[in-house]
Amino acid sequence: MTVLGLRANLAQFSLLVAVNALVGGVLGQERTVLPLLAGSEFHVTGHTAALTYVLAFGAGKAATNYFAGTWSDRFGRKPVLVAGWLVAVPVPLLLVWAPDWGWVVAANALLGVSQGLTWSTTVIMKIDLAGPARRGLAMGLNEAAGYLAVAATAVATGYLAARYGLRPAPFLLGLSYVALGLGLSAVLVRETRSHAHLEARGHAESALTDRQVLAHTSFREPALSSASQAGMVNNLNDGLAWGLFPVLFATAGLSLGQIGALAALYPAVWGVGQLVTGPLSDHWGRKHLITAGMLLQAGALALVAATTGVAAWAWAAALLGLGTAMVYPTLLAVVGDVAHPAWRARAVGVYRLWRDGGFAVGALLSGAAADLYGLRAAIWTVAAITAASGLVVAFRMYETHPRANRLDARSGGDAGR
């Protein structure tokens, strides 16, 4: 029997939380090690060249996110999830055996495709199961699991790299995550598309083509388009943190262990924080949490650019993680609030297309700025862009959670439903 709600679907929801933790772990295998491999083993010069792997990852993931939503509606959620894990199988092996930087870039293109399929599908499946009342909590748990795993794996790979070298040990951990995630998804995860069909019965008919969903989510609908731009800028600064923070820390003379700890602190606070901010958005509403989170991220990036030393950078990393925690699950909840269940999976895919396109934009922008003006100038640039994005949310987005602001959601959100 198909029933909506976290309590009614607790076993399957918990399994999907565990699966998304493994998805995050596969991403986390790179956070500490790859920026250091670029210079030490592959002798890549120039920040833009070194960030080509972030560009490849972001482009692959952004494009695949769009198709993940469409395919999930057409073929079902589970087949897309399993396909994503199959794409991930060669990634750790390519990183272990890579004879030149081109192999690393190719591995990250595959990683982006895999993450687009797996992470997008776990998001869609949890939205299906949770129903409308606890969507913020559901997204908080999903994203917390993924980014806590990113953080834990960044610490673990930093330890493995310090003890056994940059290759192969850190990537063997990633390979074990892929094997476990593929097994759980193929054997134990159940299809959730029927839950979306059940929820759709409570809404007026809303048949949109793929092109209409793309335009609606990207530009036309104020809340959806505001969420899309904020998501892109959020991952723009995450791409900066992923690709350039370890380089900045290394140039300041920090040890590999210190770099690994700082690289892990940001996603750790991000992950834990979402356990609070996700359900908080169900009570306080979405808009102001997103606005405050974007402005806090901007301030944290400015603190990284303006200071030096482990203590100051640790504070900045923690603030950046907190700001991201305020934004990340809440933006997904906005999409779930506004999009009709009949085309919600596609709207999630479009939103994640824009959001993860931020990795590619961030790699190009921050890499070019760092090459031309230095690492700190690149960070200042991204801080300014992040602050501007928060102001766009403040002036364009309306409140989407019906319990937080029923009148605003009804008058502004009917076009989306």
From TrEMBL:
Residues 1-401 form the Major facilitator superfamily (MFS) profile domain. CDD domains: MFS_MdtG_SLC18_like. It is found in: Cell membrane. The chain crosses the membrane at residues 44-68, 80-98, 144-162, 169-189, 240-268, 289-306, 312-335, 379-398. The keyword Transmembrane applies. It comes from the Bacteria. InterPro entries: MFS, MFS_dom, MFS_trans_sf, MFS_Transporters, Sugar_transporter_CS. It is a multi-pass membrane protein. Keywords: Cell membrane, Membrane, Transmembrane, Transmembrane helix, Transport. The keyword Membrane applies. This is MFS transporter. It comes from Saccharothrix mutabilis subsp. mutabilis.
